[in-house]
Design goal:
The chain is 31% helix and 26% strand. The chain has 706 residues and is of the alpha+beta class. Strands 13, 14, 15, 20, 23, 24, 31, 34 and 35 form a nine-stranded mixed sheet that branches. A hairpin with a 5-residue loop joins strand 21 and strand 22. This is Hydantoinase/oxoprolinase family protein.
Length: 706
């Protein structure tokens, strides 16, 4: 009898002998099937109208190729862009917003700062809830949680009349200072559920119990907006999986990189907005463990965007907020702020489908718009006629037209050249190869600059890092980007083309809680703090309890602290339960040590304030340190090669190159550029000036020659 998720008789994934991971992206849907440590992968175009269709089609194909019956699958792990797309495309539910009277316009007002200082016609992000669907409740709670104006029954009846007349599908409730006292929000939630059970209700005290009314409101509105859509999708997907014969538990990837149950995902679907990219961070962590690399730069390039993440000491960087639906794409501050735990990624519009054009200054620009999967790049032959990065890579000789996406799509070079000529020939006088080279150089520089700036903002020297490249486009561009930013070593893992899906298999079950709590350290009572933290533990454990027997939990605590009067705080790691002794002196020491590390000095004359807590509960279903330990047996195959050509930027002409089939390269194989290492879901480009080598675990190592 197969071990299931709830059994928990074995640890670190041993109970899950067959695991299926699926990642729905903007262009492609990636799949990875793990059986006893062996991987089988697949990639197919995303079915945008019914996203689950590509998952089902790809799953059937993978299981058939592996000779695995659907009922033998022990665990399904799923990442999706559904929540993000619903917000961006404004295809969410009809949502109403309830706030304290006089504050319903805060989702319009936002902040006084301007993200683009010199644009007089600036376009601010449009709220998800129109004014006609907002209601102000006569109630008031202050910052300390004291009730100033009680919530009267007649006010609730007025709300009932409003809901009856407007008939929303979903409701977001965000009352002032509910993070300090949630009584009024809870009362509203119960009232609406009793009177209008058909309405989906999201309370800010559940979704984002943090100070900052605007961010708390936009986060709660976003959750309410996407919740009916996400719930319907997961119900539909689970039903289709059951009909297919897969009865395994389904875990969902959250924006923080952890896995959670469908039930939790349906309660807070706003935490899925960076679901797919977070898998890439998990992959990078597993690679860091495999090679003992404590400074790693994760580079994930797909069909729509490219993502960069810094991994220090085997931990990706995290953030407490994320922007979605930016009116100025990739312009910080121009989107809807969401207060959710998220892997700290820098994302730019540079994917295989990113469209090239000539701007008003006569310069070549790439992105941010993408051709996606429909119509896709011109070379797909699906009706697209605008030049993309994929078209450029084909014309430059980097792609084998018959091996793209595992042979599912045969690329048409004539269409790619025609698209390049149509856009770049007349205004710039460029031949297709010249235009392709310029387009590729622009997109590489854009990505290199994004990585460079991200490292600078974090105070990192990027030249000290090793790059791990994955995604369908990552290995195609990694070496050139590494060269631009001073990185000498690039690692391309096995099955890199579906890297995020593979990363899902390394992700832990995890749940993070961030909560506001204003306390002056010199007046804090440790027992009251302990009671508050016990409540946080109970809340987090409710989301991970069903998995507790599968692994030992990894608990992380941080206090959000600052000097009184400061407008910013730092995260200070600490242990809980607290050690014996003087609590205030202990916390002061922890704060000053961290403050000194970050800023180079402390201010002992100023009082210290605690403004919140962060708790993360993680349970590993697999060991990232041993994920890649399976030794590759000697292939005993001849190395398959074929002649190719590479465009030399300096010579402005093609030069001879070689194309190798990656699967025929045994451990210890060495080569040099220009060369291409082709596999089903991607191609690794080895430019001139780089050496490459394969190791016993199937990794490709690119090294910049000195």
């Amino acid at each position: 009898m197969r071990a299931r998720l709830e059994s928990g008789h074995e640890q670190h994934g041993a109970a899950f002998m067959i695991r299926l991971a699926t990642d729905i992206g903007g262009t492609f849907t990636d799949l990875a099937l793990e059986r006893d440590g062996e991987l089988l992968t697949g990639k197919l175009l995303t079915t945008l109208d019914r996203p689950e269709q590509a998952v089902l089609e790809g799953s059937r194909d993978l299981l058939a190729r592996a000779g695995v019956a659907p009922d033998d699958v022990d665990l399904v792990i799923h990442g999706t862009t559904l929540a993000t797309n619903a917000i961006i495309e404004r295809k969410g539910a009809r949502t109403a917003f309830v706030s304290t009277a006089g504050f319903t316009d805060m989702i319009d007002i936002g902040h006084e700062n301007r993200f683009e200082q010199y644009d007089l016609m600036i376009t601010r992000p449009r709220p998800l809830v129109p004014r006609s669907l907002r209601f102000g409740l006569r109630e008031r709670i202050d910052v300390e949680g004291q009730v100033i104006t009680a919530l009267a029954d007649e006010t609730l009846e007025e709300l009932a009349d409003f809901l009856a007349s407007t008939r929303p599908e979903s409701l977001a409730v965000c009352l002032l200072h509910s993070y300090a006292n949630a009584a009024h929000e809870r009362l509203v939630g119960r009232f609406v559920q009793e009177r209008f059970p058909e309405i989906s209700v999201s309370l800010s005290c559940d979704i984002s119990p943090l100070a900052g009314e605007y961010e708390r409101a936009t986060t709660t509105c976003a959750n309410a907006y996407v919740r009916p859509v996400v719930v319907d999708y997961f119900v539909r997907m689970e039903q289709r999986l059951r009909e297919m014969g897969i009865h395994a538990p389904v875990l969902i990837v959250m924006s923080e990189g952890g896995l959670t149950s469908i039930e939790t995902a349906c309660e807070a679907p706003v935490r899925l907005v960076e679901s797919g990219p977070a898998g890439g961070a998990s992959l990078a962590v597993s690679v860091a463990h495999a090679f003992g690399i404590d400074k790693l730069l994760s580079f994930d390039m797909g069909g729509t965007t490219a993502k960069v993440c810094i991994v220090d000491d085997f931990v990706p960087q995290y953030d407490a907020w994320f922007e979605v639906d930016r009116t100025y794409r990739f312009q910080k501050g121009s989107g809807l702020p969401l207060r959710i735990p998220v892997v700290d990624l820098v994302e730019i519009g540079a994917g295989g489908g990113s469209i090239g054009h000539v701007d008003a200054m006569g310069q070549i620009e790439v992105g941010p718009h993408s051709a996606g999967s429909d119509p896709g790049p011109a070379a797909y032959g699906f009706g697209g006629d605008r030049p993309t990065v994929t078209d450029a890579n084909l014309v430059l000789g980097k792609l084998d037209p018959h091996r793209f996406a595992g042979g599912r799509i045969v690329l048409d070079q004539a269409r790619a050249e025609a698209a390049l000529s149509a856009v770049f020939a007349q205004p710039l006088g460029l031949e297709p190869a010249q235009a392709a080279s310029a387009l590729a150089e622009v997109v590489d520089e854009n990505m290199a600059n994004a990585a460079r700036m991200h490292a600078i903002e974090q105070g990192k020297d990027i030249s000290e890092y090793t790059m791990v490249a994955f995604g369908g486009g990552g290995p195609l561009h990694a070496a050139r980007i590494a060269q631009k930013i001073g990185i000498a070593h690039v690692i391309v893992p096995p099955n890199a083309g579906v890297g995020s899906a593979v990363g899902f298999l390394a992700a832990p079950v995890a749940y993070t809680i961030r909560r506001t709590s204003y306390l002056m350290l010199n007046a804090v009572e440790p027992q009251k703090v302990a009671t508050e933290l016990d409540g946080i533990v109970a809340a987090a454990s409710a989301h991970t309890a069903r998995f507790a027997a599968a692994a030992e939990p990894e608990i992380e605590w941080k206090a959000l602290m600052r000097y009184a009067g400061q407008g910013h705080h730092i995260e200070v790691p600490f242990e809980y339960p607290f050690p014996k002794g003087d609590f205030r002196a202990w916390m002061t020491g922890l704060f000053e040590t961290e403050y000194l590390r970050q800023f180079g000095r402390v201010l002992p004359h100023l009082p210290i304030e605690i403004v919140g807590w962060v708790h993360r509960n993680a349970l590993s279903l697999s060991d990232p340190a041993t994920m890649w330990n399976g030794q590759r047996a000697s292939l005993a195959k001849p190395v398959e090669t074929s002649p190719a050509r590479a465009y030399d930027l300096e010579k402005a002409d093609y030069v001879a190159a070689e194309r190798f089939e990656r699967e025929t390269l045994d451990a210890g194989w060495r080569g040099s550029g220009p060369a291409y290492l082709t596999e089903e879901q991607t191609t690794t480009v080895v430019p001139a000036g780089f050496a490459c080598e394969t190791d016993e675990r199937g990794f490709i190592h690119l090294t910049l020659s000195t």
